[in-house]
Amino acid sequence: MKLNDIDLNNIKVAIFDFDETLAIHKDTDFPEHRKESEEKFLTFYADAYKNPSIFYEQIEPCIRSEKLSNLINILRKENVKMYCLSGSKFSFHLKAKQLFINKYYGENIEVLSTSSQELKLTCTKIIQRINNCQLDEILFIDDRESVIQLLKDNGIKGITVDDIE
């Protein structure tokens, strides 16, 4: 399914992944570098917590996705409620993620997290209840095909970043 196949007039909620979706990492091997040593792993989360306003610009540099920025502007005009749902081991870098999104996409996208990619379905169902909408009125954008397939199998409109022209 491509974005053009979805009637955005029927979307009430949009949910975006963070890494490699809203935030495109300049270092494509960023997850592997955290695993190189305990010191790198601990430093990553400590730096994110201590330096949230500069973390995704200077410490682990990311850029925004232009095509998602354009989509967000369209959704904003349609008054679609938007969230970022990030699969995260810890919450130490949530403030850094929120500040990155606020700076590059605007301040009306709330960052939430789940401890695993599989729990994104459960979180989406909670967001559905919060927003009093149907699952098929939710659009989920992620870079992982496995996440999108799980969501689609459960009635949620899901597309990968590559499905956006």
Describe the structure.
- With 165 residues, the protein is of the alpha/beta class.
- It has a single domain (3-24, 64-163), classed as Rossmann fold (3-Layer(aba) Sandwich).
- It is 41% helix and 19% strand.
- It is built from seven helices and seven strands; from the N terminus they run E-E-H-H-H-E-H-E-H-E-H-E-H-E.
- The chain has helices spanning 30-34, 38-50, 55-59, 66-77, 94-105, 120-131, 145-153; strands spanning 13-16, 23-25, 62-64, 81-87, 109-114, 138-142, 157-160.
- The strands form two sheets. Strands 5-4-1-6-7 form a five-stranded parallel sheet, with helices on both faces.
- Strand 6, helix 7 and strand 7 (157-160) form a beta-alpha-beta unit.
- The chain is globular, with a radius of gyration of 16 Å.
- The model has no long low-confidence stretch (mean pLDDT 94).
Structural category: alpha/beta
Sketch the topology as an H/E string, one letter per element: EEHHHEHEHEHEHE
CATH architecture: 3-Layer(aba) Sandwich
Per the CATH scheme, the topology name is: Rossmann fold
Rg from alpha-carbon coordinates: 16 Å
